[in-house]
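Record type: ASSEMBLY
Status: queued
Input:
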Amino acid sequence: NAGVMQNPRHLVRRRGQEARLRCSPVKGHSHVYWYRQLPEEGLKFMVYLQKENIIDESGMPKERFSAEFPKEGPSILRIQQVVRGDSAAYFCASSNDRGRGNTEAFFGQGTRLTVV
Amino acid sequence: AQTVTQSQPEMSVQEAETVTLSCTYDTSESNYYLFWYKQPPSRQMILVIRQEAYKQQNATENRFSVNFQKAAKSFSLKISDSQLGDTAMYFCAFMKQRATGKLIFGQGTTLQVKP
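Status: finished
Output:
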């Protein structure tokens, strides 16, 4: 029973490059959430996706950041033209539904992005 | 908008003793959920305990228990018989009803358990 799998665990990019972070949810889960954790801070919600749809992107920066969750394959968080301020740990979580009885989302181990 | 505040950036406790981590929150919702997560150096987010706001009884999970004061909007975590493996960052989190996955986290408290 694999949990949420994120890769890579560590990613180093030079300023101006693109970063692609991957998240494979728990098998059977169709809801994916991305969070960002800056050093010494709590996780901040970025975006919520359900297969092929962005449901809530209220926490996403307006520029350079995008996310997708295709019908087949992992969810991808893409950061274009990275800057030093993008250095953070990015976490993915998944759940099987959002109904009244379900309250838990399962987290991956995160991807630590370092921009040099 | 909801906010979660953890006012203790760092705490320490001797092994086998009891420690309490504080958390306050602000919301206008009447039904919601509160969580404590543990983040060890591995970075894995581990759910420690959860509390439904409509339940008056405080949640308990082995050595972990909460003191939920809904009127005061307070949600503290008590760790009894502290173990070295409890050393980690602890985050308090709020979630609106039927908003699974969209959590609002506090800033975290670093807990050091000393031998």
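Annotation: Chain B has a mean pLDDT of 94.
Annotation: The radius of gyration of chain B is 14 Å.
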